[in-house]
Structures are given as structure tokens and as C-alpha cells.
């Protein structure tokens, strides 16, 4: 039973991570610029954040959900500001300087993990996404008990981590063909894409929420 429970959790985590929003663009950009481990660290940070939201959704922590619902506009605005700033920063990044920092050992995998963790955490709508996935796949059953639900949560992280591993591996196939000039334009495109994704998502949320 527990193997099938784990696979159910992995299916939820993998499916929830598939849409390539601003975090996906960021992971791709970091993989191209800093290498596989930078992309993986960033992806695993996102997976850990998703796992926390899955815990809140799966264990029905209603007081947290209620707080988020009451403050959703301000939380969303904060996330928009942070991610827009990140997009602008990537747009303005000089790849030559970044590569020199990397060779000098100034690049930190821990900072990749932590930054992506908090950036993903700044999107509280993920809670409602996981509630929808849990309901659609019917993976949370009373007979599983606490231990079974914990296995599902572990599966969510494993599924999300699997997706980020696949994505960074695919990106690495093309990394050898990327020179500094192309990386310069990739940064411009990635930075612009993050800003556009964030603004469009926020506008769409405003329209659906208030109109």
C-alpha cells in the first residue's frame, strides 16, 4: 500500500511543478549560466516550498489557509514585487561577470536553494493548487492515517524533485552550445519572461478574484 501511496504523492508533486512559470524560467537560467548543480539546488528549493504548501493543504491547517485568504492581496503584491525585481536583475546580469564569480568560488548552491525556496513560498496560491490536486487525484484517504499522509507528502517532494532533475538534465544537453553572447541574450529573454509571467498571472488573478 505504501508504495502506491508514495507514487500518488509523486504524481501530485510532479504535476504541480510542470507549469513553467517564473520559477521554471529561473531554474533554466541558472542551469545555463551556473551549471547543473545550481539548477538542481534551485529546483529542490522550489520542491521544498511546494512540500510545505502540500503539508498545509494535506493536513487541512485551516487557520493558516484562513490567514492567507484574508491577506492574499498583500501577499500576492509582495510576491509580484520580489519576482519582478528578480526578473529585472536577471535582465541586467552580465554573464561574463557571473562566470568570473563562479570561477572565483563566489557562487553558492545554498543561496540558490534558499532564494528559490522563498521565491516559491511567496506564491500562496500554491496551497489551493495542492488542495485541487489532492481532490482530483483522491490521494488523501482517512484509512491511510498520519503515516500514510506523511508518505504522500514525501512523495510530493520526490515528484517535484524528479521534475526539476529532468528539466535541468534537458537544459544541460544544450548548455555546451551556449556561448557568452547567447547567454547574454538568454538573460535578457529570461528576465523579460519572468516579469511578463508575474504581471500576467497577477492581472489574471485580479480579474478572476474581483470581477
UniProtKB/TrEMBL annotation:
Pfam families: LysE. Keywords: Cell membrane, Membrane, Transmembrane, Transmembrane helix. PANTHER family: ARGININE EXPORTER PROTEIN ARGO, ARGININE EXPORTER PROTEIN ARGO-RELATED. The chain crosses the membrane at residues 6-28, 40-65, 71-92, 113-134, 146-173, 185-207. It is found in: Cell membrane. It comes from the Bacteria. Its main location: membrane. One of its GO terms (cellular component) is plasma membrane. It is a multi-pass membrane protein. This is Lysine transporter LysE. GO terms for molecular function: amino acid transmembrane transporter activity.
Amino acid at each position: 500500500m505504501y508504495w502506491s501511496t508514495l507514487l500518488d504523492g509523486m504524481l501530485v508533486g510532479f504535476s504541480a511543478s510542470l507549469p513553467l512559470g517564473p520559477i521554471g524560467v529561473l531554474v533554466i537560467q541558472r542551469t545555463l549560466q551556473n551549471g547543473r548543480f545550481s539548477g538542481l539546488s534551485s529546483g529542490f528549493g522550489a520542491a521544498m516550498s511546494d512540500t510545505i504548501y502540500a503539508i498545509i493543504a494535506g493536513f487541512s491547517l485551516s487557520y493558516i489557509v484562513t490567514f492567507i485568504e484574508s491577506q492574499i492581496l498583500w501577499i500576492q503584491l509582495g510576491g509580484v514585487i520580489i519576482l519582478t525585481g528578480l526578473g529585472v536583475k536577471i535582465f541586467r546580469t552580465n554573464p561574463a561577470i557571473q562566470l568570473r564569480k563562479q570561477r572565483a568560488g563566489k557562487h553558492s548552491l545554498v543561496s540558490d536553494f534558499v532564494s528559490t525556496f522563498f521565491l516559491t513560498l511567496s506564491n500562496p496560491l500554491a496551497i489551493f493548487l495542492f488542495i485541487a490536486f489532492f481532490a482530483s487525484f483522491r490521494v488523501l484517504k482517512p484509512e491511510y492515517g498520519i503515516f500514510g499522509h506523511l508518505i504522500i507528502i514525501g512523495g510530493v517532494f520526490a515528484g517535484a524533485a524528479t521534475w526539476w532533475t529532468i528539466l535541468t538534465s534537458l537544459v544541460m544537453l544544450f548548455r555546451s552550445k551556449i556561448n557568452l553572447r547567447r547567454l547574454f541574450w538568454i538573460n535578457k529573454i529570461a528576465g523579460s519572461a519572468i516579469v511578463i509571467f508575474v504581471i500576467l498571472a497577477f492581472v489574471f488573478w485580479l480579474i478572476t478574484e474581483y470581477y
